[in-house]
Amino acid sequence: MPVSPANLILILLLCQLMGPAASGAQEELVGGIGGFVIFPLTHSQDRIDSIIWFFERTTLVTIQPATTNKSDTVIVTNRHNQERVAFSRGNYSLKLSKLSKNDSGAYVVEIHSSSLQKPITQKYGLRVYEHLSKPRITSGLQNNKNGTCVANLTCFLEWGGEDVTYSWNSLGMTSNESHNGSILPITWRQEEEDMAFICMARNPISSNSSNPIFARKLCEGVAGDLGSTMALRITLLLIVLVSLLILLTIWRLKVKGRAYNYSRGKFDKFSLFHSANAPKGGETSLTAHIARQINAIYL
Ligand SMILES: *[C@@H]1O[C@H](CO)[C@@H](O)[C@H](O)[C@H]1NC(C)=O
Ligand SMILES: *[C@@H]1O[C@H](CO)[C@@H](O)[C@H](O)[C@H]1NC(C)=O
Ligand SMILES: *[C@@H]1O[C@H](CO)[C@@H](O)[C@H](O)[C@H]1NC(C)=O
Ligand SMILES: *[C@@H]1O[C@H](CO)[C@@H](O)[C@H](O)[C@H]1NC(C)=O
Ligand SMILES: *[C@@H]1O[C@H](CO)[C@@H](O)[C@H](O)[C@H]1NC(C)=O
Ligand SMILES: *[C@@H]1O[C@H](CO)[C@@H](O)[C@H](O)[C@H]1NC(C)=O
Ligand SMILES: *[C@@H]1O[C@H](CO)[C@@H](O)[C@H](O)[C@H]1NC(C)=O
Ligand SMILES: *[C@@H]1O[C@H](CO)[C@@H](O)[C@H](O)[C@H]1NC(C)=O
C-alpha cells in the first residue's frame, strides 16, 4: 500500500504523540504462579523492523516480523524460556506462561522501525502471586461473664501472605454483616440466635474462605480447635474400628476359603467372574481352582 506524504506526516505525528506517553506510564500486571500473563502491545506501525522485549534490562525475546518471503523470526535469549513465550498474531503482544515468583519485575518492549527516529517503548510491571490457601481462625482469650461472650477472632494464612487483605462475614438468621481487617471483635449473648463467622482472604489474583466458626460453639468453651481435636479423635477411633472389622471379615473369608467346596459355587466373586467369561465362547472359562487362587490374590 503506497503511503501518501500527508498520511506519513500524520503517522509520524501520531507516533510522536504516542511515544512519550507510552514510555511514561507503566502498565501494572499481575499473574498467578503456574499461570500466564499477556503483555498487551498496541501500535500503529505497519513497517516494523524488530520488536525487542526486555526483562530487568536483559533481552528476553527479539522478533523480526514476517516479510513477504519470510515468516516471523523469533529469538528467545534463554533456552529455558523457549516454550514459555508466545505472541499474538498481528500485534505481537507477548504471552508468558508457566509463571514463577521470579518472573516478577520490570518489562520493557521496544519497537524499532526505520520510519521512526527512536524506538517506541512501553513499560510493564509484573507481580506474580500464589493462589491463596484456606485461611484459618484463632480466637483470643474470651470473656464469658454474665452470659455475654466477648472475643477477638483473628484470621491468618499459614503461608503466601503478600498483598493479602482480610474481611469477615457474620451470618445470622436476621442479619448479615461484613467487617474489614484480619481481627473481628465479637460480642454475643447466650440468648441470641447463633451466628457463623467466616473469614475471607484476598490477593490480587485469588481469594479463599475459612471454614465457618459458630458463636454458640465458641462461647460454650468448646473452641473451634478443641472441637476439631474431638472430631479427630472420634474419626481415628472409627477408622481403627472399621479396619478391625475388615481384617476380621478377611480372616473369616480365608478360613471359609480353605474349607471351600468346589461343587457349591459359593463365592460371589467367582460366580460373577464365571458368568462374565462364559458367553465369550472362544475361551475356556477359568476353572474353579484358578478362580479361587485369583480370589485369594485379590484379597
Ligand atoms: C492482539 O491480538 C489478539 C488476537 O490476535 C487480540 O486478542 C488482542 O486483544 C490484541 N491485543 C491488543 C492489545 O490489541
Ligand atoms: C522474495 O522472493 C522473490 C522470489 O521468490 C524474490 O524475487 C524477491 O526478491 C524476494 N524479496 C525479498 C525482499 O527478499
Ligand atoms: C525462576 O524459577 C524457576 C522455577 O522456580 C527456575 O526454573 C528458574 O531457573 C528461575 N530463574 C531464575 C532466573 O532464577
Ligand atoms: C482454598 O484453599 C484450599 C487449600 O487450602 C484449596 O484446596 C482450594 O481449592 C482453595 N479454594 C479456592 C477457591 O481457591
Ligand atoms: C451483667 O448483666 C447485668 C444485667 O443484665 C448488666 O447490668 C451488667 O452490665 C452486665 N455486666 C457485664 C460485665 O456485662
Ligand atoms: C480485642 O482487641 C481489642 C483491641 O485490640 C482489645 O481492646 C480487647 O480487649 C480485645 N478483647 C478480647 C476479649 O481479647
Ligand atoms: C445472610 O446470608 C446468607 C448466606 O449468604 C443468606 O442465606 C441469608 O438469607 C442472609 N440473611 C439476611 C438477613 O440477609
Ligand atoms: C471494606 O473495604 C472495601 C474495599 O476497601 C470497601 O468497599 C467496603 O465498603 C469496606 N467495608 C466495610 C464494612 O468497611
Automatic annotation (TrEMBL):
TM spans (from-to): 230-251
Sorted alphabetically, the keyword list is:
Glycoprotein, Membrane, Signal, Transmembrane, Transmembrane helix
Which species is this UniProt entry from? Answer: Pipistrellus kuhlii (Kuhl's pipistrelle)
Q: Give the InterPro entries listed for this entry.
A: CD2/SLAM_rcpt (IPR015631), Ig-like_dom (IPR007110), Ig-like_dom_sf (IPR036179), Ig-like_fold (IPR013783)
Q: Where is the Ig-like domain positioned along the sequence?
A: 135-215
GO biological process per UniProt? T cell activation
Q: Where in the cell is it found?
A: Membrane
**What protein does this entry describe?**
SLAM family member 7
Renumbered to this chain, the signal peptide range is 1-23
Keyword Glycoprotein appears in the UniProt entry: yes
Q: Which GO terms describe its cellular component?
A: external side of plasma membrane
